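Question: Send over one sample?
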Amino acid sequence: RASTAVVLAVSLFPTTVSFTVPPKTLSPEASNNGLYASDEGFDAPERTPAEIAMDTTYGTATQFTTDDSQETMTSFFETHQNFISLFTEIQGANPIASSFIGATGTSDGTKFTATERESLPDIPADDVRKNQIASFLDAMQQSLLDIPVNEGVEEDTADMIFVEEGRRILALSRFQVLDSNEALFETVWSEIATLLSDDTGGTGTLILLTNGMERKELVEFAECEVFRPLSWLGLGELFEVSPIIRSDCTGVRILYKLGEVPDLDAQNEYDDDYDPNKFIEGLDAL
């Protein structure tokens, strides 16, 4: 990590916000904060790497007993009848919720379908929302800087957290800001449909709630209203859904086909064997 810089660039026309995380040179006695979901946000007392790992924004264990029973699925789909057409169109292969949705994307007159909906812009148009996004990303960047470095260890838990959190920030390609929490469900599923339609791995959406939401309520929403239904629709393996909680702003992060951390040793081996002359010869042969 000491030789690597992470650059976070978000084009927010007419404002361009560029964040650079320089190589870390913190001492073991330096700030021991991390990027994690907590009621206190990114400002936390000194903690060990093991404690930081317990509060990362990824890999959170299930916190609610949401099962895949017929009763649970019936309650969800009956509550969201307006979205049946969308669920039908975005479903994956062999969804366990097939009895609740149609076999095709034929509209049945409900208000919201994947093909008929108006896709939201990648980034809000007004400067106020752009500044809210920039402030949030700035705090996320600072949280990466606060992860400690143990100079005597080549790679440790803190380094892995730095990589995992950093690549999740870099994966964000779409941003939405909501003044009303009532629009959260529709916005989340609209973004899921957009990410599926674009089908670009390693991308994602951050949805910010300016009015905030209680931690328990947001975690329950992310799991019970988004992640579990995605699994019922046969899409659970494609998405990572995380509640992002800070003291001044909260939101939901949706990542699509994030994949594993690249094998840097294998990449370096590939780079060492790379012969540009062979590449040029291959182009000439076309």
In short: The longest strand covers residues 6-12.
